[in-house]
Structure formats: C-alpha cells, structure tokens
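Hey, I'm writing a tutorial for new members on how sequence and structure tokens pair up, and I'd like a real worked example in the thread rather than a made-up one. If someone can provide the structure for the chain below, I'll link this post from the tutorial.
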Amino acid sequence: MLFKISISGIKARWKDYLVLFSGMIITTAIFYMFEAISTNDKFTTSSAVGQNAKIVFIFGSILLAIITLVYVFYANNFLMSMREHDYGLFMMLGAKSGVISKLIILETIAIGLISTVVGIVIGIGFTQVLSHFLASLIHMSLTNFSAFYMPAIIATIILFAILFLVAGFLNARTFTKTSALQLLRS
C-alpha cells in the first residue's frame, strides 16, 4: 500500500521530477564512465597511457563523488519540497509520522534506484562511444578495455545507494519534525 502511494506521488508529479531526474541520470552516467576507466586494472596496467590516465580518473571520481553528494542532496530537497503539501495533508488525515517517514524513504529510494539503473545503462553506452572516439583521436587501440565493467557498476550502485539512503533518512527526519500546518502552508 505504502509503495503504491509513493509511486503514485512520483507519477503525479512526473513533469516536475523530470528535469532533476534527468540530472541525476546524467550524474550517474558520468560517474560510471569515470569508474569504468579508473577501476579497470587490465586496461590501466597494459600501457603507460593507461597508468597515467588511472590517476587522473581516480581523482576525477573523487571530485565527482563530492559534486554528486551536493547535487543529490539538492535535488532530493527540491523534490521533497514539492511534496510538502501532500505530506501535510496525509498528516491532517491521520497518518502517523512513522508512516510518512517510510513513504519519504520509499520515494527517495525509488527515484534513486530508477535514476541509478538508467544512468548506468546510459553510462555504459557513453563509455563505449566516447572511449572509441577518444582512442581514434590519439591513434591508440583499446586493448583490455570494456565499457561494461562490473566493478564500476558495483562502485556506482554502492555510492548512489548510500547517498539516496542518507538523503531519504534526512528528509524523513526533517518532515517528521515539521508540523502538519507548516507542511500544508508550503
């Protein structure tokens, strides 16, 4: 029941969510691209260029993780602020704060899961296209490189799962400490 309510909330505001949702997908895709190169030991150890590139891509992954952290929290706060009135209405109708918290966490995780999976798929495609394009520019063959790389997928899923879980719990905590009247006025 709670899952259906969270999915219907997302569907009802799909147009509002689309811009931020697409931003999260692109963020996931870019992070995956960096991880696919930096974690691919066969590729990076097979050439001097790969060894130098690994350092750059590890540093890039760290910077992207920090930027992603900021973006995910910003996007989640914006998405949740659009639902404040709905949550206030649920509270006025008698929903307990624990139920609202679960709903917020479920919505955050659903959005995070969908954007992460779609972002990884797009990231694999981008990695394939861009790696061949860049290799042709510098006249280098890509030996031992695959755009589909399971350690990069796992690293991406872990990072975004942690980010969305933390964001969900922080959003739930914020909303349960806010009165129903304040939520209705927003």
